[in-house]
Amino acid sequence: MNIYDIADYSSCLFEAFCALILFEAFLKRRDGINRAVYYAGAIALSVLMSISNHILTTNLVNMSVVIGLELLFSVLYKGDLKKRVIASTLSMMIFITAETVVLISMTACIGYDVASVVGEGSLRIWGIIISKALGCIMSALTAYKAKKRKTDLDVDYWILFWFMLLSVIITVHTLSLVLMEG
Question: Are the CB atoms for 62 and 56 separated by under 8 Å?
């Protein structure tokens, strides 16, 4: 195991705990479940996400599996399926958005192409650190806004949600094609 593997594994831990933050905002904890169970669940989620990331080579399939794992994790909470799907998908969308923004910013600032930034060890580590920090900030802000609002989700929210999801899927697919070519 090297530093790059550690960065990949720890990035899943960040993503799992940010999913926990979003679930705390959108759903309610079940009565009688200790806080330690939620943290253990987040750690188990991070391990499963890491396994998925290393086994599955197709980004869209991996993304679907991770959303499914987050949905499975959400059974620790009370709430309707709509909010579970939103929290799980939003978690994935936040990190894909953060990774895309960081990748585009790094390529623009450094002048390397996408494949070089992803392939170069030190640039990749910095990209992981910055994108996970940005993802955590975005998750915390989203959770804050959701807790503050605490109303039912209206039609406008759903339109925005599906538009964002479609944008993320197109971005992931496009980046996958770019990386395969380069």
Answer: yes
DSSP state of 30: P
Separation in Å, CA 38 to CA 21, 58, 73, 97, 182: 11, 29, 9, 26, 41
- pLDDT range class, residue 173, cuts 50, 70, 90: low
DSSP annotation of 151: S
Gap between the Cα atoms of 56 and 53, Å rounded: 6
Structure tokens at 51: 């396994």
Inform me whether the pLDDT recorded for 180 exceeds 70: no
Distance separating alpha carbons of residues 63 and 160, to the nearest angstrom: 20
CA 40, 89, 23, 13 dihedral sign is positive
Residues 38-86 have pLDDT tens digits of 999 999 999 999 999 889 877 888 889 999 999 999 999 998 898 899 8
What does the alpha-carbon distance between residue 16 and residue 47 come to, in Å, rounded to a whole number? 9
| Contact between 121 and 128 (Cβ < 8 Å) | no
Please give the angle made by the CA atoms of 66, 68 and 73, to the nearest 5 degrees.
Answer: 95
For residues 93 and 166, what is the distance between their CA atoms, to the nearest angstrom?
10
